[in-house]
């Protein structure tokens, strides 16, 4: 039995291509017999692009490629994810172009299990990917020919099979005028071609069952039968030579004929004879930096390369057509064709050992998946032996000191790469260096900078390993201390958590094992889990808690339980008083770097009284012994008859009076906090 191997490339594989494309191969994994996933990180003109490639070895007898039609037939569109799930494909990628405004049929020829199910449109510079009966891949231009032969041997040419209407390239001829168009039972919809055309219903032995003059039949093509849609001269041929009950011959084929068992359509060539082809067809529509799908073949026709590039997402900018050509050459293509891209591009794949597929290339702009007409599916036809061969787990390649990261088992597989049910298995994780990182169940806790080998061992003797780097505190950009409650009494306990924002953009929770805690104000003690028990508030209203990790610190404030805490979020109507949720009818906002809040909600929240002089537009706020007045639109305010000045003004918006919260709150004896990250304003009334 062939030994299947998973290889994660630790080294950097750089390819310097003709147009300065730099590609790093980051993963190579055979996930199904003859099918290898190769993940690439590509940089072009300082733009990062994620490209997934499936290399297919047609020499492998257990590899099966099949065109998958939407929800089972043409005109039944479906997403790549739903097609993969419906057919239980090991991988599936979108395929041919189609007119999104019409019923839903591919633009080009397609063959499923040796059966021709669509003909090529009469377009210039369109190509197909085919596989012959002796497992040789061919990319070529495909043509269609056929004819209907009447009982008197008079014949008329057939223009196409399962075609939506279109206009020829070059001549501009209408596809459904003076033509015979054939529809078989692979066309699911009752809507076909040109609705004003006449139709002929033909059964499986060629007998004409019915003729509809000047309109379509009002039903879909019955199983095993065909409908001929005819117009003009083609209708004249039928009327002169065919009647109900006659037996006719409906013959058609594609050329050149290489005894294809598989065929899917594409657009123009990207690569020919190992050289990039300048892309000119429909460039005004297809140009730019977009998500892309392409298919390529090796010079001997024994390898197929299916590539999908994610586009216009935060992690992947997409490729131009010229870059796509260069990339296809770099991975070994002698010839390559462009498939439908943009919003149609998506790829779903079952990781080795996984029972279900996951999307490895997301739709353009992270939009919802587009329903497409066809995809290329990859299937494992080997027998499932059930004999365990390997197991795989996943988790981050690097963690921070103090970070606790989860590692999950992806799955196990047998000798023929079929997934195995492992629900009854037991397993454990071990670290090669517990000084740097230690496992607690499935979680790995970073303790000191260094490298470790994580090993998974199952109860039946399978093992898998993963190299992990433990990084130091210099990766931290900012610390944030958080508490599970802000108000506390003597003898109570609260929990302090520490979050770290890292250079790579992630925000993680740090283990208390690496955090230093201190309290300034209240009297209390911290335990090993970051819990603070306050033994005495020492007759103080507030206290500061500081966390320190490396050379970074963060401080948060807690208050005596007699305090009243009001929290509001910029741009939201929700607010809280001592954690009790409430809602206002307008929202706080920021103007000229100052936070303005609705005065009545704030005053009522702290128990103050508000008086409004509408004629003079003066607000009067009374809180305990403090009396504050301010005039809308002016910087001056009066506190207990003493006039002062603010650097901003109160305003009226949405029929509500908004005040600059920091000046007003502090003037009334309130403590103010502002969390810029979460946009939260906190007011504390220290009773």
From TrEMBL:
Pfam family, one: Cu_amine_oxidN1
Copper amine oxidase-like N-terminal domain span: 577-682
Domain of life according to the entry: Bacteria
Domain Phosphodiester glycosidase: residue ranges: 199-379
InterPro entries in the cross-refs: Cu_amine_oxidase-like_N, Mao_N_sf, NAGPA
PANTHER family (alphabetical): N-ACETYLGLUCOSAMINE-1-PHOSPHODIESTER ALPHA-N-ACETYLGLUCOSAMINIDASE (PTHR40446:SF2)
Name of the molecule in the record: BBRPI
């Amino acid at each position: 039995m062939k030994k299947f191997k998973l290889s994660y490339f630790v080294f950097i594989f750089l390819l310097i291509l003709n147009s300065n494309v730099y590609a790093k191969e980051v993963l190579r994994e055979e996930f199904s017999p003859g099918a290898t996933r190769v993940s690439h990180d590509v940089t072009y003109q300082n733009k990062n692009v994620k490209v997934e490639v499936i290399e297919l070895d047609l020499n492998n007898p257990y590899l099966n490629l099949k065109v998958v039609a939407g929800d089972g037939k043409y005109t039944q569109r479906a997403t790549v994810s739903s097609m993969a799930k419906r057919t239980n494909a090991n991988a599936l990628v979108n395929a041919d172009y189609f007119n999104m405004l019409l019923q839903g049929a591919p633009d080009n020829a397609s063959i499923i299990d040796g059966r021709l199910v669509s003909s090529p449109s009469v377009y210039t510079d369109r190509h197909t990917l085919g596989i012959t009966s002796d497992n040789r891949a061919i990319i070529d231009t495909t043509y269609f020919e056929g004819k209907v032969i009447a009982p008197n041997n008079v014949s008329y040419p057939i223009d196409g099979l399962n075609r939506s209407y279109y206009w020829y390239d070059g001549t501009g001829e209408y596809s459904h005028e003076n033509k015979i168009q054939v529809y078989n039972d692979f066309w699911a919809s009752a809507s076909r071609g040109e609705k004003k055309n006449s139709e002929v219903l033909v059964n499986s032995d060629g007998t004409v069952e019915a003729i509809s003059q000047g309109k379509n039949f009002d039903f879909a093509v019955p199983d095993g039968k065909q409908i001929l849609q005819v117009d003009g001269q083609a209708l004249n041929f039928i009327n002169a030579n065919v009647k109900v009950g006659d037996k006719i011959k409906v013959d058609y084929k594609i050329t050149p004929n290489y005894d294809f068992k598989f065929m899917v359509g594409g657009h123009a060539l990207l690569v020919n004879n190992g050289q990039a082809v300048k892309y000119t067809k429909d460039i005004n529509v297809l140009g730019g930096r977009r998500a892309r799908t392409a298919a390529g073949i090796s010079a001997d026709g024994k390898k197929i390369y299916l590539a999908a590039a994610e586009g216009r997402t935060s992690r992947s900018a997409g490729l131009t057509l010229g870059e796509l050509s260069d990339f296809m050459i770099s991975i070994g293509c002698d010839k390559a064709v462009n498939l439908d891209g943009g919003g149609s591009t998506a790829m779903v794949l079952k990781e080795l050992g996984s029972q279900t597929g996951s999307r490895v290339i997301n739709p353009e702009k992270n939009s919802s998946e587009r329903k497409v007409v066809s995809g290329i599916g990859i299937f494992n036809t080997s027998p499932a032996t059930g004999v365990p061969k390997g197991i795989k787990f996943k988790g981050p390649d690097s963690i921070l000191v103090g970070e606790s990261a989860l590692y999950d088992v992806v799955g196990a597989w047998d000798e023929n790469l079929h997934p195995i049910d492992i629900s009854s298995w037991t397993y454990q994780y071990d670290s090669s260096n517990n000084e740097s990182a230690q496992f607690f169940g499935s979680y790995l806790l970073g303790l000191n900078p260094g490298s470790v080998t994580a090993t998974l061992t199952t109860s039946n003797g399978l093992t898998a390993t993963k190299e992990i780097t433990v990084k130091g505190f210099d990766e931290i950009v900012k610390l944030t201390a958080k508490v599970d409650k802000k108000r506390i009494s003597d003898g109570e306990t609260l929990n302090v958590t520490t979050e770290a924002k890292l250079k790579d953009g992630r925000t993680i929770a740090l283990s208390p094992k690496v955090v230093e805690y201190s309290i300034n104000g209240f009297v209390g003690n911290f335990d090993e889990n970051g819990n603070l028990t306050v033994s005495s508030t020492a007759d103080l209203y507030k206290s500061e808690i500081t966390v320190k990790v490396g050379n970074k610190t963060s401080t948060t404030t807690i208050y005596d339980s007699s305090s009243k805490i009001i929290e509001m979020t910029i741009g939201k109507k929700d607010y809280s008083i001592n954690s009790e949720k409430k809602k206002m009818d307008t929202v706080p906002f920021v103007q000229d770097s100052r936070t303005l809040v609705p005065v009545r909600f704030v005053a009522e929240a702290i128990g103050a009284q508000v008086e409004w002089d509408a004629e003079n537009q003066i607000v009067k706020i009374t809180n305990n012994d403090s009396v504050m007045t301010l005039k809308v639109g002016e910087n001056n305010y009066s506190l207990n008859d003493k006039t002062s000045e603010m650097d901003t003004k109160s305003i009226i918006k949405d029929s509500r009076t908004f005040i600059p919260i920091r000046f007003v709150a502090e003037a009334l004896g309130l403590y103010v906090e502002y969390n810029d990250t979460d946009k939260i304003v906190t007011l504390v009334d220290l009773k």
